[in-house]
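Severity: low
Component: inverse-folding endpoint
Summary: output formatting inconsistent between runs
Steps to reproduce: submit the following structure tokens with default settings.
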């Protein structure tokens, strides 16, 4: 809710990703990104102090430029796969 205004329930873990594998990440510390498949339960989509704009996109119209520190194409591909195949395994780097 904090950044997007959307309330969700996490349904399952999609993947655990090594955030330091992104080329431009600074190796000052080690971090992992956890990606969850969530179900929307309420709230209203909005921008915040941390986001200039918040919108939903059809999968075939996703913006080509995403923040490499936050979301990579692999995260999106794995989340789409998890959504369509409830039995698929959690991904790990």
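Observed output (run 2 of 3):
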């Amino acid at each position: 809710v904090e950044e997007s205004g959307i309330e969700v329930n996490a349904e399952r873990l999609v993947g655990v990703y090594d955030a330091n594998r992104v080329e431009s990440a600074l190796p000052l510390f080690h971090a992992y990104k956890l990606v969850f498949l969530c179900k929307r339960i309420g709230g209203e989509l909005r921008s915040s102090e941390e986001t200039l704009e918040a919108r939903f996109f059809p999968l075939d119209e996703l913006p080509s430029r995403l923040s490499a520190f936050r979301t990579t194409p692999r995260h999106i591909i794995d989340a789409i796969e998890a959504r369509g195949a409830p039995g698929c395994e959690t991904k790990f780097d």
